[in-house]
Design brief:
With about 325 residues, the chain is α+β, with helices and mostly antiparallel strands. The chain contains twelve helices and 13 strands. The radius of gyration is 20 Å and the shape is globular. The two termini are about 20 Å apart. Bound molecules: adenosine monophosphate (2 copies). The site of one adenosine monophosphate has 17 residues, from strand 6, strand 8, strand 10, strand 12 and strand 13.
């Protein structure tokens, strides 16, 4: 392998997007596949090399073999590798600011960064006894909404809670929209990339018999916000970039997503962010409306990441976009 011309990722989440984009920009690609998934990834011919593993955490033992490549992180990294191990033991260059994944995973840090960005955030309740309005109860880590539940008051909370440590958050009634952005360090600019919403089981079920929905993500839809709303989203993205520069040196690098909910009075709340590529960008291969307008060519999020890496390499600035 020649140094830095290979893009590596774990084969799940947004791997097809990342690998296809990397190939289009002229990189060689390496996919780490869990046994049982290799045939699927091989069938798309986007991986020049496949390493088959029993568990994604085997990537720690493969580091010597892949140390000259650039790893693109996505939602599976923290979910399957464990944040602490990923931050402490993983020394292969990772695209983006790894540190921001810590802020994404910690509820206190997450709220601090969102508040500094200038977006409203739903109220949080430290104890079930303090619940004074309908809440959504969430569990930690990128679990894709599985097991979340809604409670009207503390009694309902105790009836439904399994005792697992959770975040109790005000339930916002509104429409969710998840704008994804790309902050380019090389071009020093913020790009609104796309907007998606999630398809969740069973809250999105047409058949509503149990009235007790959970929010397990099963897919994503593209959505185009009113243009006046897109303007506000762009401002919030700018606020996030600024806040991340203040708290998470050197700030966010590349893709990030704000999970927004817009109520009937057009108040915009954010309950989460992701400091890396989200799976909603998979709706926009080969391009999104915004990326087409900006680039005048097909530009997926995977390709946008690879373009940034390519430009960084040609300007000898790779260290500015990896960590
Ligand atoms: P998977 O690709 O299904 O192995 O998912 C990897 C991790 O990312 C899991 O923690 C999932 O819950 C999360 N994830 C996968 N797809 C999505 C999605 N479309 N939206 C949000 N999270 C997701
Ligand atoms: P999250 O894991 O925080 O992205 O949440 C998963 C899903 O739960 C979201 O896609 C929303 O549909 C829903 N959700 C999360 N937080 C709230 C909230 N505070 N109010 C209403 N719905 C929410």
């Amino acid at each position: 392998m020649t140094k830095n011309n290979v893009v590596t990722c774990l084969a799940s989440h947004s791997a097809l997007n990342i690998l296809k984009g990397a190939k289009e920009e002229g990189f060689k690609t390496l996919a780490i596949c869990k046994k049982g998934t290799t045939a699927f990834y091989r069938s798309f011919e986007v991986a020049d090399r496949i390493i088959e593993v029993d568990s994604f955490s085997d990537i720690f033992d493969l580091q010597k073999d892949i140390e000259d490549t650039i790893v693109i992180p996505h939602g599976s990294f923290v979910a399957y590798l464990g944040l602490d191990r990923f931050l402490d033991e993983f020394y292969v260059p990772v695209f983006g600011n790894k540190e921001i994944l810590k802020w994404e995973s910690d509820r206190g840090l997450k709220s601090k960064l969102l508040k500094e960005s200038g977006v409203k955030i739903p109220m949080e309740f430290e104890k079930p006894e303090k619940i004074d309005r309908p809440v959504i109860v969430k569990f930690h880590g990128a679990r894709g909404g599985s097991g979340y539940f809604i409670a009207k008051d503390k009694d309902e909370f105790y009836k439904k809670s399994t005792g697992e440590d959770s975040l109790i958050q005000e339930l916002i009634i509104g429409a969710t929209m998840y704008p994804s952005f790309f902050y380019s360090v090389i071009r020093e600019r913020l790009e609104l990339f796309c907007v998606d919403r999630r398809y969740e089981s069973d809250v999105d079920s047409a058949i509503d018999v149990d009235h007790d929905p959970t929010f397990t993500v099963v897919g994503n839809f593209p959505v185009v916000p009113r243009e006046s709303l897109a303007v506000k989203m762009y401002d919030l993205g700018g606020g996030f970039v600024k806040a991340s520069k203040k708290f998470v040196h050197p700030g966010v690098i590349g893709p990030f997503c704000l999970e927004l909910c817009i109520d009937r009075d057009m108040n915009i709340y954010s309950f989460e962010f992701s400091g890396r590529i989200v799976a909603g960008t998979n709706c926009f291969i080969p391009h999104s409306p915004y990326s087409y307008i900006l680039w005048g060519e097909q530009m997926s999020m995977g390709k946008r990441i690879a373009r940034e890496v390519k430009e960084a390499i040609s300007e000898k600035r790779l260290d500015e976009i990896t960590s």
